[in-house]
Design goal:
Largest sheet: none
Structural class: mainly alpha
Order of helices and strands: HHHHHHH
Number of strands: 0
Radius of gyration: 15 Å
Number of helices: 7
Shape: globular
Strand content: under 5%
Oligomer: single chain
Length: 143
């Protein structure tokens, strides 16, 4: 059990931390320029592992990202905040899964499609009853 926990922490804690650091690129912080580099870990992680590992890594990256950026939702509605923190990372998990699949198939050419997938996933995240248009990477460029 201890070795399994160590493996999980070693494998996914960097993803959670990298995702959490992205929240500092949003206002009121003046680090919007760092948003250009914040997705590089996702590109790196898309090069190795299985599709399942890619989804899990993307999910944990999204969990860190949304937890650090949306902590204030829990103050207003605890149940809604917890649900959002477990639901919203699915989008980044799917994005990394698609990127890993494309990388396995097309190699480095898949990186040309990453901006398209990221933008499409953020757009889809904002639609529908469960739509959540906040925390899009484009919002980091407001300053």
């Amino acid at each position: 059990m201890k070795q399994y926990t160590y493996k999980l922490v070693r494998q996914y804690l960097p993803a959670v931390i990298a995702g959490a650091l992205v929240s500092f690129t949003f206002p009121p912080y003046h680090f919007g320029f760092a948003a250009y580099f914040c997705l590089i870990p996702l590109l790196y992680w898309s090069r190795t592992g299985t599709l399942k590992q890619a989804f899990k890594t993307g999910y944990w990256w999204g969990f860190g990202f949304h937890t650090a950026g949306l902590y204030w939702i829990i103050i207003g509605t605890a149940l809604g905040g917890v649900m959002a923190l477990f639901y919203l990372p699915l989008y980044s998990g799917v994005t990394l899964l698609l990127l890993r699949w494309l990388y396995k198939r097309y190699g480095s050419l898949s990186y040309l499609m990453f901006p398209l997938f990221w933008t499409a996933i953020e757009y889809l995240r904002g639609l529908g009853v469960l739509g959540f248009p906040w925390m899009s990477i484009a919002h980091t460029q407001s300053y």
